[in-house]
């Protein structure tokens, strides 16, 4: 988003895409086709045209009236051939953001495929997490020397530029260019610090942001974003260790100054006004055309039935039903019709809503004090994320939770790192502690167990196969199976937790060793097959359990294993029961 701002300031046309580049290529070719044929009625059939360009199938075209065997179809075939031959629309500059290294194959494929979009004199830049962590590997597999770390110096992309890209405001408009809706879609994204003074061995932050910057002003970031994109309801701060800053009090005061003090509300902004303002000044017209068409659709849904038909017909006459064929002139002309309807049926029903601040990366429990928590309570933080990475910090963590509750912060969350140097016992006791604290303090704590994965180990960086020294493949899979049922989180409610993870550590291990189908379909099998399996399991002696565990720990049941010990084999048979594929 900062890169979009940088290039727009340089006078470039910027385009954002998230997803399959093969679809993007077909979509770009379809845009060129529509521009060449200049037939707005085809806007309705864009998905069919894209499918033909991408696959060569004719069935989608059969449903387009008067299209088959026409001059338009003949022309479309040329675009299909261009797609097949990799003759895609060209860009002068392409930026690719890499994420975690275990997406390695798709990352490398994407970078290499993107070369087809680059003009002969163009440039491709690769940056992000994977490009910083595994710089040499990306260079070897793509031939592109990636950017490492932050764009935090002038001239890193263009020698004539004095801009520091990492300090530039975000271009929120690019989010309107894609169908994907980000969860925090009505929020400012910002940093008030960078990096982290700690060097935790499981964390990549010291390599991604090696220098701890303990204060970055928020006021200018908010002001610039609000002027262009309108006020956002929430504030998402992505700082890695805000409590470590010696300017902590100043940071909280500045957050309050920006309109996010405790109890603050956001007056509803008109999405229509923002879209039209940017369309009129020519700012990312492509994105705001998509936005305005969606707003027209919302108006249509709210209109009385007696008005819907006229609104639809007028849009159809102005070619304003589909963004791909809508013109700037038609949108501006239609404003005198759409604006009063949006005000009447949508905007006037909006009400002020509570503003929320989220330190998305969490705060360090070891740095929590009464004074700092009291200061945090001056803003409407929800949830407060407090790190609980390992069990030895239990006392510090519990103290932080109790101090938060004492200061009126009752919505909390955390990530529980496991599969690192911890044991399964330690994961269980951390989860249980959160449930107990919920009951004891009357707070809500949502825990998210997160499996550790080494992102630069030569054996594991491009897969998710790593198993910690106190874990095994079956234990990992069992935890994941339970989390699938709880949608990845653990909330308050002792009975729910005990049903999911067990009333005590022995029951937890019972679940860890339990056949996967019985974990996922707990109630389906609880009184029959699960009980049968457990009865047989308990009858095994110590040596038989060791042999069984050696087999089950590998979690490989594609082919049946016969040990020759009838007691062991009678237990093993339950591990071949398949879970429903829909689960």
Write structural notes for this entry.
This protein has 583 residues and is mainly α. The protein contains 26 helices and ten strands. It has helices at residues 2-9, 21-37, 46-55, 59-62, 71-84, 104-114, 129-133, 135-142, 205-208, 219-229, 248-260, 271-280, 285-302, 305-317, 328-345, 370-376, 394-406, 424-441, 473-485, 494-501, 505-513, 516-520, 522-525, 529-538, 542-552, 566-572; strands at residues 91-98, 118-128, 187-190, 234-237, 265-266, 353-354, 357-359, 384-385, 411-418, 444-451. The protein has a three-stranded parallel β-sheet, with helices on one face. Strand 1 (91-98), helix 6 (104-114) and strand 2 form a beta-alpha-beta unit. Helix 17 (394-406) runs parallel beside helix 18 (424-441). The longest helix has 18 residues, at 285-302. The mean pLDDT is 94.
The N- and C-terminal alpha carbons lie at a distance of 36 Å
**Widest sheet: strand ordering:** 3-4-7
Largest sheet: 3 strands, parallel
**Which range best describes the helical content: under 10%, 10-25%, 25-40%, 40-55%, 55-70% or over 70%?**
40-55%
User: Count the helices. How many?
Assistant: 26
Q: Give the overall shape, derived from the CA principal axes.
A: globular
Number of strands: 10
Radius of gyration: 28 Å
The computed structural class is mainly alpha
Mean pLDDT: 94
Q: Are there runs of 5+ residues with pLDDT below 50, and where?
A: none
* Content of β-strand: 5-15%
């Amino acid at each position: 988003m900062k890169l979009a701002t940088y290039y727009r300031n340089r006078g470039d046309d910027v385009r954002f895409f998230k997803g399959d580049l093969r679809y993007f290529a077909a979509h770009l070719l379809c845009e060129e086709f529509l521009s060449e044929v200049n037939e707005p009625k085809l806007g309705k059939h864009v998905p069919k045209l894209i499918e033909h360009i991408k696959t060569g199938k004719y069935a989608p075209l059969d449903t387009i009236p008067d299209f088959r065997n026409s001059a338009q179809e003949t022309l479309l075939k040329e675009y299909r051939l261009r797609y097949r031959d990799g003759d895609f629309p060209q860009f002068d500059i392409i930026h690719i953001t890499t994420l975690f290294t275990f997406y390695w194959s798709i990352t490398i494929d994407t970078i290499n495929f993107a070369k087809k979009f680059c003009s002969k004199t163009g440039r491709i830049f690769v940056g992000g997490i994977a490009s910083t962590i595994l710089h040499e590997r990306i260079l070897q597999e793509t031939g592109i020397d990636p950017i490492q770390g932050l764009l935090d110096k002038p001239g890193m992309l263009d020698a004539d530029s004095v801009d520091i890209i990492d300090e530039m405001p975000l271009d929120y408009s690019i989010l309107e260019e894609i169908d994907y809706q980000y969860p925090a879609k009505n929020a400012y994204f910002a940093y008030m610090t960078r990096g982290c003074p700690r060097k935790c061995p499981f964390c990549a932050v010291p390599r991604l942001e090696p220098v701890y910057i303990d204060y970055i002003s928020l006021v200018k970031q908010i002001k610039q974003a609000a002027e262009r994109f309108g006020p956002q309801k929430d504030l998402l701060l992505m700082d890695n260790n805000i409590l470590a800053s010696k300017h902590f009090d100043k940071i909280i005061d500045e957050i309050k100054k920006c309109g996010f003090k405790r109890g603050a509300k956001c007056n509803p902004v008109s999405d229509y006004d923002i879209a039209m303002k940017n369309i009129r000044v020519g700012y990312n017209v492509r994105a705001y055309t998509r936005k305005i068409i969606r707003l027209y659709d919302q108006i249509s849904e709210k209109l009385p039935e007696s008005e819907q038909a006229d609104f639809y017909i007028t849009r159809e006459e102005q070619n304003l039903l589909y963004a791909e064929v809508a013109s700037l002139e038609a949108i501006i002309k239609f404003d005198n019709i759409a604006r009063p309807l949006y005000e009447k049926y949508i905007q006037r029903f909006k009400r002020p809503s509570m503003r929320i601040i989220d330190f998305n990366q969490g705060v360090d429990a070891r740095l929590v004090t009464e004074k700092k928590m009291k200061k945090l309570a001056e803003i409407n933080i929800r949830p407060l994320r407090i790190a609980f990475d390992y069990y030895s910090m239990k006392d510090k963590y519990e103290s932080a939770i109790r101090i938060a509750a004492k200061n009126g912060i009752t919505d909390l969350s955390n990530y529980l790192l496991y599969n690192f140097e911890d044991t399964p016992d330690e994961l269980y006791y951390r989860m249980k502690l959160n449930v107990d604290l919920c009951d004891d303090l009357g707070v809500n704590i949502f825990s998210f167990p997160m499996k550790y994965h080494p992102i630069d180990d030569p054996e594991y960086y491009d897969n998710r196969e790593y198993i910690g020294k106190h874990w095994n493949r079956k234990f990992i899979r069992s935890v994941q199976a339970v989390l699938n049922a709880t949608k990845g989180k653990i909330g308050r409610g002792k009975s729910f937790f005990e049903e999911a993870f067990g009333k005590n550590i022995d029951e937890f291990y019972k679940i860890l060793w339990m056949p996967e189908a019985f974990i996922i379909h707990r109630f389906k099998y609880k009184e029959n097959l699960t009980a049968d399996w457990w009865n047989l399991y308990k009858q095994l002696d110590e040596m038989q359990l060791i042999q069984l565990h050696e087999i089950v720990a590998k979690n490989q049941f594609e082919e049946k294993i016969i040990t020759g010990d009838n007691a062991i084999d009678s237990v093993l048979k339950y591990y071949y029961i398949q879970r429903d594929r829909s689960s």
